[in-house]
Design brief:
2 copies of one chain form a homodimer.
Chain A (H helix, E strand, L loop, with lengths): L18 H4 L5 H7 L5 E2 H4 L8 H13 L3 E6 L5 E6 L1 H19 L1 H9 L1
Antiparallel strand pairs in A: 1-3, 2-3
The first copy, chain A, binds a DNA duplex (20 and 20 nucleotides) through helix 4.
Chain lengths: ~120, ~120
DNA sequence: CGGTATCCCCTTGGATACTG
DNA sequence: CAGTATCCAAGGGGATACCG
């Protein structure tokens, strides 16, 4: 077994870019998953994400937009209308994200057991 | 496109268990990756993780131990000796974790570009 | 409808010094 | 060597009310 390198994480490490840090906040992952099925309106997102305050949802969406995962579109309809949808980058992120969710489901019981004791 | 379910995230969502939340703190992922190669001593971990204060490293390790990802072993050597190593659960987590790191490396330039603008 | 604004708490985590 | 103890700052994030 070889020794660990001293500079392994001197620069910004790729793992610091994991989804919930990429987005910048704890809700980013859920927001992304809510956008899997196509563009969604703000009020539509508030349904599955009812536990997020409007402030945090906006903040999360803005953050995801800044980082290039989500595209915000404003329509000039008579009634105001805004949609959010995944960019190519955002969609590419869904793959590893799903891998994680699958892993969590597969090991759900083990995780709970470990927590118990 | 079907409507989003209202109860999608009512219970604790699997995605909230993502690696950096599973561990509980921002360093957990890096710690896990440092343990890929086998058992490591505390002081050994401090080398690649030089930016983490001893307090945070301990806290992170304790958290990973509680959650069943890491096993702490104390030896009764004359000189004090403690090692940390991945459990089966911990090793299983490395897979999706690596998937993420790979993704981050693959999209590194895009990520930086998005950040710029 | 799609958000802002404000207030406030509380945890996260950094620095530093110390200990069995 | 393998941690603790203490202090402190920053900001993440919740609740609520309001706005164009």
């Amino acid at each position: 077994m070889e020794a660990l390198r001293a500079d392994m994480f001197e620069e910004i490490c790729p793992s610091t870019l994991l989804p919930f840090k990429v987005g910048g906040d704890k809700w980013a992952g859920m927001v992304l998953r809510c956008l899997e099925g196509g563009p969604r309106r703000y009020s539509e997102l508030r349904v599955p994400l009812a536990r997020i305050s409007p402030k945090m949802l906006t903040q999360s969406l803005r953050s995801l937009e800044r980082d290039g995962f989500v595209r915000r579109t404003e329509y000039a309809d008579p009634a105001r209308r805004v949609t959010y949808e995944l960019t190519g980058l955002g969609r590419s992120l869904l793959e590893p994200l799903r891998a994680f969710c699958d892993w969590a489901e597969d090991h759900w019981d083990e995780l709970l057991d470990a927590r118990e004791s």
